[in-house]
Design a protein that fits this description.
Length: 358
């Protein structure tokens, strides 16, 4: 007999799979000195001023944080040139994904998204008893015409991860605007920009390009990737004030922890300190892409802090052989392997290991 009566939508729910740790790989394969390139983490610590701010706040963690993180919201609003009523914060952008699904989805509703994409999308949708409508990628890119065509009267939401996880390709604000104009304005279009700071600025800025003209566009961003704050879980959303009110209704009390708020505030003011790290990551990404291309790989356009190897039926084999050499990556069985851009020495190690398994 099962314990309790779990919801049907949860009983069949797949669990989210985080990237395997280096320690786990070492134990499984009896090796040492493994490196983790599986979770798209920034390999470098936060800016010194951010670390200093967090250390100074540790003594105050005996008190609850500001539930609504008002100071942080105000700072984000001023930073982006929007009103405070257009901003909310959450437990990373994935926390905001859960909130928006809880706020807007009923059983039987549909959510459209390109696929392959962020693995948390179908989980968050199914949690609410809604249905995922996955639109296949074309050459690892979004087919925006097909996305528009997939929207029906049952569609409540469209999810667009750009740059896309795991393929790394991105879509422009102009292309998103065309999509928005083709669908009903009561369908939310969520532009999930976890890797925005690493993408080509020529793609545009949804906050300035789309939000002033379309109140059904919602933009998710995070301090996890570019700012090196993945462990403190601080994401934010920019949207119409009505959407923000609804998201805030589903904000778990005090989920925006004190250290995360302090770190995000400091990060906003640390642009000059953070820029060299971003330049290094982008430069390393270019170097890795060039090396892979020269060795015969045909790669999707890499706009995030990772590269995607379209390994197809050999995915599990290549992934395992890399891991046996101590290079932990993220496989998508039958599709490809996502490899985070690490430090120069880590990237060199990945390239050497891959040469040995091809």
């Amino acid at each position: 007999m099962s314990v309790g009566r779990v919801r049907l939508s949860v009983a069949s729910l797949p669990a989210y799979r985080p990237g395997k740790s280096a320690d786990q790989a070492e134990q499984e394969h009896g090796i040492g000195d493994a490196i983790k390139l599986a979770s798209n983490e920034n390999p470098y610590p936060p800016a010194p001023s951010v670390i200093e701010a967090v250390m100074g706040a540790v003594s105050g963690v005996n008190r609850y944080p500001d539930h609504l993180a008002v100071e942080l919201r105000n700072a984000i609003a001023a930073w982006l040139g929007v009103t405070s009523e257009q901003v909310t914060v959450g437990c990373g952008s994935v926390g905001l994904l859960r909130q928006i699904c809880m706020a807007y989805l009923d059983p039987g509703d549909e959510v459209v998204f390109p696929w392959l994409s962020f693995e948390a999308y179908p989980i968050a949708v199914q949690t609410m008893g809604a249905e995922s409508v996955a639109v296949p990628l074309v050459n690892h890119r979004f087919d925006m015409d097909a996305v528009a065509a997939a929207v029906t009267e049952r569609t409540k939401m469209v999810l667009l991860a750009t740059p896309n996880n795991p393929t790394g390709t991105a879509v422009s604000s102009a292309a998103i605007a065309t999509l928005v104009e083709r669908i009903d304005d009561d369908v939310l279009v969520v532009v999930d920009e976890a890797y925005r700071e690493l993408a080509d600025p020529a793609l545009g800025d949804p906050v300035t390009d789309l939000l002033p003209h379309h109140n059904n566009v919602v933009v998710f961003r995070t301090f996890s990737k570019a700012y090196g704050l993945a462990g403190l879980r601080s994401g934010y959303a920019i949207a119409d004030p009505e959407v923000i009110v609804n998201l805030d209704k589903l904000l778990l009390p005090f989920t925006n922890n004190q250290l995360g708020q302090v770190a995000a505030l400091a990060a906003i003011g640390a642009g000059d300190e953070i820029r060299p790290t971003l330049d290094l990551l982008i430069g390393e990404r270019s170097r890795v892409v060039a090396a892979l291309t020269e060795s015969g790989w045909q790669l999707p356009d890499a706009q995030a802090n990772f590269v995607y190897l379209p390994t197809g039926e050999r995915t599990s084999e290549i992934y395992l052989r890399l891991e046996e050499q101590g290079v932990v990556t993220r496989p998508f069985p039958g599709e490809g392997i996502r490899v985070t851009i690490g430090s120069p020495s880590e990237n060199d190690r990945f390239l050497r290991a891959l040469t040995g398994v091809r």
